[in-house]
Specification:
disordered N terminus; 10 strands; Translation Initiation Factor IF3; Alpha-Beta Plaits
């Protein structure tokens, strides 16, 4: 009786395995594993690169004011920031290209090493904006105007360069990437002794050209007949494609 029971259990186990593996045609999965999901054809990637000259600059700038009270610090910050905003507009920057990124009011805490206690040492107000500069040749002059307008409250921490419309550059890079992928696929087909068919899968991804450079400007000293020198240089736009080609024989 016991032996018959063991045979029944063994038979049930075999049937369970058969049920999992499957006896019908078509792909069978266990969980997320597809045992018939192997890629077919010749898979290649191609890359296209284009060198571009930036025509847009973005500045991260603003003011930072410290005082004994919140009201005093905020008053100083407001006055300085209003002057900075006026200087930007007077320099030809459109108001729609000025966007607030960060505003904070924080207590300034000092540490007394003798007593081991924290004490309030005033308050700090920070107001930072990003400014898009479309007249890229005017970057240095705009920086100087902001430094004068904001005085010792001025903070300029970052500058980045990009292109306003990268579409034509992507078009050029895409053609180069597709040609690169085709060359690779043809070489692989020749080496394998097969005939290359048409693409059955195409995808692409691209890197948007933005060049970030750190800057640090605090407590500026205005100098007459002086213009800050900023060089945008060049950037590289990269686009990559992935293709799968059918094999005809």
């Amino acid at each position: 009786m016991k032996r018959n029971w063991l045979v029944a259990v063994a038979l049930a186990s075999v049937l369970a395995v058969v049920g999992v593996c499957g006896c019908t045609a078509g792909p069978t999965t266990i969980g997320t594993v597809d045992f018939n999901s192997q890629q077919e054809g010749i898979w290649v990637s191609g890359e296209g690169k284009v060198t571009v000259t930036p025509d847009i600059a973005s500045l991260w700038l603003g003011i930072e004011a410290k005082a004994d009270t919140v009201a005093e610090a905020q008053s100083q910050a407001t006055e300085a920031m209003n002057s900075v905003m006026a200087a930007l507009v007077d320099s030809g920057v459109d108001e729609k290209d000025i966007q607030t990124q960060y505003f904070s009011i924080y207590p300034v805490i000092s540490w007394d090493k003798d007593t081991g206690e924290e004490t309030a040492a005033g308050y700090e107000v920070t107001n930072m904006v990003t400014v898009k500069i479309r007249e890229i040749d005017n970057i240095g002059a705009i920086i100087d105007a902001v430094a004068v307008a904001g005085g010792d409250y001025t903070r300029i921490s970052n500058i980045s360069f990009s292109v306003d419309d990268p579409t034509p550059y992507y078009d050029e890079a895409r053609q180069e990437a597709m040609a690169d992928a085709r060359d690779k696929a043809e070489q692989l087909a020749e080496l394998a002794g097969v005939t290359l068919g048409e693409p059955t899968y195409i995808s692409e991804w691209a890197s948007y050209p933005v060049d970030y450079r750190e800057m640090a400007m605090t407590a500026p000293v205005p100098v007459e007949d002086y213009t800050t020198s900023i060089s945008p240089g060049e950037m590289e736009l990269t686009l990559t494609v992935q293709l799968a080609y059918a094999i005809l024989d």
